[in-house]
């Protein structure tokens, strides 16, 4: 077996993967994965209602793409089991390559799907969209944990949280790349061209980034921690069984430690775009329907709930500005988590999220300026809570079940936190007649749940990360 380590004077091991290679490989993979994931989220708001659910009511056209969006989150726990099993059995490197290939192929094929408006595709097109969305979720279920372990298992002592911010940074970078491309296409193409073929370009271009990501990851050497598990014969036969039997507490805590982070992020991205670009008045809704050549019925008028009424491109630019703050504070969170400890730093951030939920409706009610303030504050909090997670969740588990444990916790949390988030937000907004006060209240409740999980957990900063096995 090719060694990835060299002995130091004290008898410990040092990774031979260089710092630049580790950080770039963990960053490029998650950037690609999140780019692929987010272009679906953006398309779900902008074009999928008309393309894949053309015969449904306006309300159901909004909800149906989000329901398909949630399919990926149901798949993610399954992906965490499958990829986690192989990540703890055969290694991090091969598993990361497999997850990236799965995500890339599924995303590319979404870009080739015929619309349901075409003859013979009314039922088949939405069904294939569900299947490919499921595969996206399956892949992301294995990607995140592998990238987190790639970074943290190669980190110097006292730098795990800092190194762990690099795979996390893939989320804001992937989001910015995806939405910049959508803004560019929306600008240079007519609405008809964008709806007909322009939306496919981001999905098809993902193939180029996948090739780059595969090249980088194939050049990696297996982590020292996993090779130590192998050399000592401590690879477990069934990682999932060992994890549930011996580390169930870590699974529960990790799931709820991530809960508010997931709710916040999908409120900040998918829901804000829906609310921000929804018509602000009946007159605007009628004008929008007329521009699209559709009849605005009495039933639609009765079910109408107002949004901000902003142009799609304008709000996408606001989101991109907000996500820049997400990226900056993701990097800031690493040193803070090393200095103050993961638990203390996240407790303070979670209190901030709870308060932010109470300010949600007043900020959105203050027009464009308030919306921009909401996006900046929300994404700052997102960076501070998301950044340390690549260190926190793996630290809850020993090396020989670390891939499985962190993946299952992360992705079960996605199923209960992220999957229903956009759907619940739209439903609460409609139930409140256009007010977003209930949306903010839900975020505050999520923050309380996460605060409790953090409160009963222990600090993990000083755990023996390399030598700890089940």
Summary of the model, kept short:
By secondary structure, the chain is mainly α. It is built from 21 helices and two strands. Belongs to the major facilitator superfamily. Metabolite:H+ Symporter (MHS) family (TC 2.A.1.6) family.
Describe the structure.
The protein has 470 residues and is mainly α. The protein has one domain (17-456): Up-down Bundle (Growth Hormone, Chain: A), CATH 1.20.1250. Helices cover 76% and strands 1% of the residues. InterPro entries: MFS_dom, MFS_sugar_transport-like, MFS_trans_sf, Sugar_transporter_CS. The chain crosses the membrane at residues 66-87, 94-115, 121-140, 161-185, 197-218, 251-273, 315-333, 345-365, 371-396, 408-431, 437-456. One of its GO terms (cellular component) is plasma membrane. It comes from Arthrobacter pityocampae.
Number of domains: 1
Query: What is the total tally of β strands?
Result: 2
Structural class: mainly alpha
CATH fold topology: Growth Hormone, Chain: A
Strand order of the largest sheet: 1-2
Number of helices: 21
Please give the alpha-carbon distance between the first and last residues.
Answer: 23 Å
Q: What is the annotated CATH architecture?
A: Up-down Bundle
Largest sheet: 2 strands, antiparallel
Helix content: over 70%
N-to-C order of helices and strands: EEHHHHHHHHHHHHHHHHHHHHH
Q: Report the uncertain regions.
A: 1-13
CATH superfamily: MFS general substrate transporter like domains
Q: Can you identify the CATH class? A: Mainly Alpha
Strand content: under 5%
Rg, Cα atoms, Å: 22 Å
Overall residue-averaged pLDDT value: 86
Anisotropy-based shape? globular
Family: Belongs to the major facilitator superfamily. Metabolite:H+ Symporter (MHS) family (TC 2.A.1.6) family.
Function: May be a proton symporter involved in the uptake of osmolytes such as proline and glycine betaine.
Membrane topology: Multi-pass membrane protein
Main location: membrane
């Amino acid at each position: 077996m090719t060694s990835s380590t060299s002995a130091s004077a004290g008898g410990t091991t040092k990774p031979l993967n260089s710092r630049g290679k580790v950080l770039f490989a963990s960053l490029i993979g998650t950037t690609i994965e999140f780019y692929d994931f987010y272009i679906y989220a953006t398309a779900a708001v902008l074009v999928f209602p008309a393309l894949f659910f053309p015969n449904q009511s306006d309300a159901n056209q909004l909800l149906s793409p989000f329901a398909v969006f949630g399919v990926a989150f149901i798949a993610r726990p399954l992906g965490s089991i499958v990829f986690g099993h192989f990540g703890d059995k055969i290694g991090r490197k091969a598993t990361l390559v497999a997850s990236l290939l799965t995500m890339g192929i599924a995303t590319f094929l979404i870009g080739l799907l015929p619309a349901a408006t075409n003859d013979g595709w009314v039922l088949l097109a939405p069904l294939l969209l569900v299947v490919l969305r499921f595969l996206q979720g399956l892949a992301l279920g294995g990607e995140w944990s592998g990238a987190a372990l790639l970074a943290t298992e190669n980190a110097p002592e006292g730098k795990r949280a800092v190194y762990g911010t690099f795979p996390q940074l893939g989320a804001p970078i992937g989001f910015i790349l995806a939405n910049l491309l959508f803004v560019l296409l929306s600008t240079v193409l007519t609405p008809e061209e964008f709806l007909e073929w322009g939306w496919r370009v981001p999905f098809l271009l993902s193939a180029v980034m996948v090739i780059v990501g595969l090249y980088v990851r194939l050049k990696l050497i297996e982590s020292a921690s996993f090779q130590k598990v192998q050399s000592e014969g401590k690879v477990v036969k069934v990682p999932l069984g060992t994890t549930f039997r011996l580390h169930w507490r870590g699974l529960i805590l990790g799931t709820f430690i991530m809960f508010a982070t997931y709710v916040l992020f999908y409120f900040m991205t998918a829901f804000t775009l829906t609310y921000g670009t929804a018509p602000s008045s009946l007159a605007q809704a009628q004008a929008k329907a007329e521009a699209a050549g559709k009849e605005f019925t009495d039933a639609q008028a009765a079910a109408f709930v107002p949004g901000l009424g902003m142009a799609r491109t304008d709000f996408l630019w606001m989101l991109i500005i907000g996500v820049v703050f997400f990226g900056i504070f993701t990097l800031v969170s690493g040193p803070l988590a090393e200095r103050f400890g993961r638990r203390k730093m996240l407790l303070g951030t979670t209190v901030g999220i709870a308060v932010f939920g109470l300010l949600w409706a007043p900020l959105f009610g203050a027009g464009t300026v308030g919306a921009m303030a909401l996006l900046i504050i929300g994404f700052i909090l997102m960076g501070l809570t998301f950044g340390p997670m690549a260190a926190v969740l793996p630290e809850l588990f020993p090396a020989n079940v670390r891939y499985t444990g962190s993946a299952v916790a992360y992705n079960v949390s996605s199923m209960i936190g992220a999957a229903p988030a956009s759907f619940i937000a739209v439903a609460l907004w409609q139930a409140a007649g256009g007010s977003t006060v209930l949306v903010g209240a839900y975020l505050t409740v999520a923050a309380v749940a996460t605060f409790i999980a953090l409160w009963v957990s222990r600090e993990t900063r000083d755990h023996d990360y390399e030598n700890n096995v089940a």
